């Protein structure tokens, strides 16, 4: 990879990460404003509400990984076939969930430790339990967090389309 290709990928990554983050945070606060009676993010029974107390931290994790994954998969997004583009966006979304869920689980466990119970082996516990819990529970939270997750997928698909157009027109290089 040449230096110019590296900087082009870095610009694309920065654009996708920052844009997705701003859009996701804006969407969160819009839904929270409209539906202030309920939490934007779902939570399971007997689960603390850390992700609604610290939404920006929990939003930043999937946005970061979305930026990385999209940067490398948007090269397949170049043609205008809608079904293929939707499938690529779906693959990006699934990979983003798989990669970011363990980090969300570890952050959740860290917040749980901060709430009053900090074991001696907290790093080991956060890594072991946080990763496995994130992988198991992350999917449920996403599915039950409608309309946020559905609107988020649509917005990320539109962002993929726009970013691929910008790359195609050499506006990001």
Question: What is the count of β-strands?
Answer: 0
- Give the quaternary arrangement of the chains: single chain
Stretches where pLDDT is under 50 for at least 5 consecutive residues are none
The overall pLDDT average reads 84
* Major sheet description: none
| Structural class by secondary-structure content | mainly alpha
* Shape label: globular
Q: Percent helix among the residues?
A: over 70%
Distance between the termini: 15 Å
What can you tell me about this protein's structure?
By secondary structure, the protein is mainly alpha-helical. It has helices at 3-34, 50-53, 55-73, 82-114, 122-144, 148-168. Helix 3 runs antiparallel to helix 4 (82-114). The radius of gyration is 17 Å and the shape is globular. It starts with a helix and ends in a 5-residue tail after the last helix.
Features:
mainly alpha, 76% helix, 173 residues, 6 helices, 0% strand
In short:
The chain is mainly α.
